[in-house]
Amino acid sequence: MVSGEVAVKTFELQYLAEHDSLTGVYNRHYITQAINQAILDFQYHGVRDMFGILFIDLDRFKLINDSLGHHIGDLVIKAVAFEILASVDHRCQVARWGGDEFIVLVRNVPHSEALLKVAEQISRKLKAAYNFRDKDIYVGASIGAVMASLRYHGADEMLRDGDNARYL
User: Fold this and answer.
1) Nearest CA among 77, 64, 52 for reference residue 144
2) What is the set of active-site residues?
């Protein structure tokens, strides 16, 4: 292989290792590493590197998948990923956690109200109807929000609390 081809293959492999194959957003592995790095940055720099995460779980997705089929379910997941990306700015990294769950890492967020504003923007976007095969599908989402804290030593702890916050 020519060196340019090697570089392209290396880039392709790196992309595949970091992105969800269905949606193109970051994957579980990548976002876990990014959250772990954000925790380290916060522990070192304090509020200068304040961040939060949003744990998003789609409402009624099992019903959509079961009644309309997995193909439509996949199209809904892709559309939701697009809407989440369209709802956030450059401070955010969006990842598909798995199934119908997404994680948004929001960096440089000064306080919980700013994080909740991002959650509200996403929630508003996801309430709109999606039209597939002349059927209007309403998704909606439950969103848990968690701000950085010195009590967190790893992504798994923050993600657990974000998942639990969806029920509060």
Assistant:
1) 52
2) 100
Kindly tell me if the per-residue pLDDT of 7 is higher than 80. Answer: no
Kind and range of the H or E run holding 1: none
Give strand ranges (E) for the chain: 51-58, 92-98, 101-107, 129-132, 135-138, 141-147
- What residues form DSSP beta bridges with 107? 51
Q: Residue 69 region, left (φ>0) first, then alpha (ψ -120 to 50), else beta? A: left
**Alpha-carbon span 48 to 65, nearest angstrom:** 43
Q: Which of 75, 90, 44, 88 is nearest to 139 (CA)?
A: 75
Nearest-Å Rg of the Cα atoms of the chain is: 17
Q: Is the pTM of this model over 0.90?
A: yes
Quote the CA–CA distance of 77 and 54 in Å, as a whole number: 17
Q: Is the dihedral of CA 107, 110, 114, 115 positive or negative?
A: positive
